[in-house]
Amino acid sequence: MLFQEVSQAMAVEKMLKAAGYMVRLVAPPPELRKGCDLAVEINLVEQPGIERLLKEKDMAYTSIEPIRAKTAPLLDAVKVTDFGRWVMVKAGNMKITYEKESGVIVNVSGGGCPDIPYLHAELIDKRLDQAPRPKALGFTLCALNLERALDECLALYSGGNKT
Amino acid sequence: MIEIDARGLNCPLPVVRTKKALEGIEEGELTVIIERPEGCQNVRRFAESQGCGVTVAEKDGLFYVHIYKKKAVKSASPGQSKNVVFITTDRLGTGDRRLGEILMKAFLNTLWDAEPKPARILFLNDGVKLTTEGSEVLDSLKLLEKAGVQIFSCGTCLEYYQLKDKLKVGAVTNMYDTVESLLSADKVIKI
Amino acid sequence: MMLIAGTVPIKDMPLTLGKVTSESGYLVVGGRSIPCTQGTGAMVSAALATTSYLGLEAPHALLVGDIGKGEGSRKLYQYLIDHIEELSPAVLALHYWLPNMSQTRQLCAAVEKCARRPIMIADAASMYSAKAAGLAEKFDIFTPDPTEIAFLADPEATHPAYIARHLFETDITRAPELARAAYRHHGAAKILLAKGAIDYIIKDGEVLATISEPNVPALEPIGGTGDTITGLVSAFAFAGLELHEAAIIAAKVNRMAGKYANVTPATKVREVIAQFPAVFKDYLCQWSSVCGAKGGRSGD
User: Fold this and answer.
1) Domain residues for B32?
2) Do B51 and B13 have their domain in common?
3) Measured at the alpha carbon of residue B88, what is the angle toward residues B83 and B91, in degrees to the nearest 5?
């Protein structure tokens, strides 16, 4: 996590530690440096939860970048499978399946991070447009993919094309 | 003497434990204690398929399967090839039925005389009628088995013909093993 | 013992270790009820159904509540790091938790000190963590789905959300090719049970078995049907089956249970698990390479 000013990095590190996250103050690799010479190293998997917390606390940062330079950008590919009465939307490693007629979510599958079984319980049997947003409830990259899947489901369903 | 207490274990675990125990010794004896008759049969068949001697005693509702493993002969038996005979009918040829049955009897007798003998004979479809009660070739097949030829009958076929409990020689096999036998054979002779 | 470790979506559930039982459709561990739903609950249920049928000791589970914040996961890892040597399980199956490479390294180091090395199985984020930490080869079995095989094959990806797009867009028939890449980049366990429309059992880069029947496409959307395969293979490994055979039979059981349950995309995973005993009774002997053929239903 990169910052413009040292004070921002230190404040964020303190806040995240108090919130229970395992983070460290580090020097950013030269190729990633954008502002000041201090960055906060986070577990990339926890990016969505951390971003949400910073937004709630109105704390500034510049960006979050993977340390490994050759890491691909966040996958935004989506696949849709028609099961007749149901549609399954896959975004990254996450899948949401809903009933075409009612728009009710019947299944959530994929993933491996601990917020997914929780989100599964929260989303099942909810209508797409009434389901909680995974990005608002989840904490990990798996939740981010689930958010994308939900977005695509909503677009398909509300677009009148229920397939 | 190794003892394997397989009471309370469902198939295939008694056989899995027997297999592991046999793999752990070059020769020797072991006893497998089993509750269910099907488990007992499966262990017996497995041990026999590995060339072991087997006796079964029943006591107080339990089966005691005694298995005797002899040291394996390192070099291949001079009388045995890696060929497989695949018998899918109960008679030889498609002409007269009675002639076909007689020819099959003669074929199996001659097979017993022949060298090298096949490694295995697989019986499928109608062929399972030759390994079950009432077959006229049971003696020939038992001799072949005693000479080291493995005899297997298709389980699905036995069930189809309601002969599952009437198998008199060899062991039951499945499609997975049948395919493996055929693919790993030097030659497959289909009857 | 067989030990399964993972998180469950019960916010304040403390770290709990105990033998698993079942009551009124719920799992019970250390006096706490856990639902049999997608995630570690489904995996434990599948393992319990298998050990119950085979007549083996029930699995033990080390569970903690964590809905994604990570605190529970860290306690779980730490407990294992501190106690794995004394627990000394025959099988250690790691499942849902917040990936943490540092703690994964410590856990693998602690496992090396066990008097008898457990069979190591990982799925879900435990698998992500092991691969990202460069420790995949310390594991005996991984059970990745198609996206996860692509993740294992991508040497730069630390999470499936970051795999290269061209790898994501491959279909399951490229799984063997991706698996070979995963082995080349040291991102694979000794055995991969690559689950999908076709299941592949791959050992050291070579495909040992391909399972495509029965074909039950509706299994894919059902949350937890990947978790059940992991539970099955873990239990069969605990039962003493050769690991590749445990993987083959696990894949077959999962499919056949889906067929028996007549699943649709709306089916819940507990309905699939409920069919396991019937599938075991009809097919387990037949599918085992040591027993003879038996049973089966007509038309199968």
Assistant:
1) 2-69
2) yes
3) 105
Provide, rounded to the nearest whole percent, the portion of chain B with pLDDT above 90. Answer: 47
Residue C39: the pLDDT is: 93
Do the domain assignments include residue B79? no
Residues B88 and B165 in one domain: yes
| B93 and B44 within one domain | no
Establish if B36 belongs to a structural domain. yes
The domain made up of C2-287 has a fold known as UDP-N-acetylmuramoyl-L-alanine:D-glutamate ligase (3.40.1190)
Q: Give C-chain residues touching B19 at CB under 8 angstroms.
A: 290
State the chains in contact with B (3 or more Cβ–Cβ pairs under 8 Å): C
Total domains in chain B come to: 2
Examine the fold and report which residue of B12, B41, B69 is the final residue of a domain before the chain moves on: B69
- Partnered with residue A87 across adjacent β-strands are A82, A98
| C294–chain B Cβ distance below 8 A for any pair | yes
In this model, does residue B77 exceed pLDDT 50? no
Q: Of residues A35 and C55, which shows the higher confidence score?
A: C55
For C177-202, the pLDDT digits (tens) are 899 999 999 999 999 999 998 999 99
What are the extents of the domains in chain A? 6-56, 78-158
Interface of C with A in 117-176 (CB under 8 A): 123-128, 145, 147-148, 151, 154, 156-165, 168-169
Question: Are B140 and B170 found together in one domain?
Answer: yes
Give the per-residue pLDDT at B48. Answer: 86
- How many helices (H) and strands (E) are present in chain B, helices listed first? 6, 9
Q: What is the number of other CB atoms lying within 10 angstroms of the CB of residue A62?
A: 17
- The CA-based diameter of chain C, rounded to the nearest angstrom, is 52
Asked whether residue B175 falls in the same domain as residue B95, the answer is: yes
The answer to whether residues C193 and C247 touch, using CB atoms and an 8 Å cutoff, is yes
Give per-residue pLDDT as tens, C272-285: 999 999 999 999 98
Position B1 pLDDT exceeds 90: no
| Claim to verify: residue B59 and residue B104 sit in the same structural domain | no
| DSSP strands (E only) in chain B | 2-5, 28-34, 53-59, 62-69, 84-87, 120-123, 150-154, 171-173, 188-190
For the cut 70, the answer to whether the pLDDT of residue A123 exceeds it is yes
Asked whether at least 3 C-beta pairs link A and B within 8 Å, the reply is: no
**Residue A158: φ, ψ to 5°:** -80, -15
Same domain, yes or no: B111 and B19: no
> What gap in Å lies between CA A70 and CA C161, rounded to an integer?
14
Q: Does B15 touch chain C (CB under 8 A)?
A: yes
pLDDT digits (tens, 9 = 90+) for A53-92: 999 999 999 988 887 656 666 666 788 999 999 999 999 8
Are both B64 and B91 inside the same structural domain?
no
The structural domains of chain C, with segments of one domain joined by +, span: 2-287
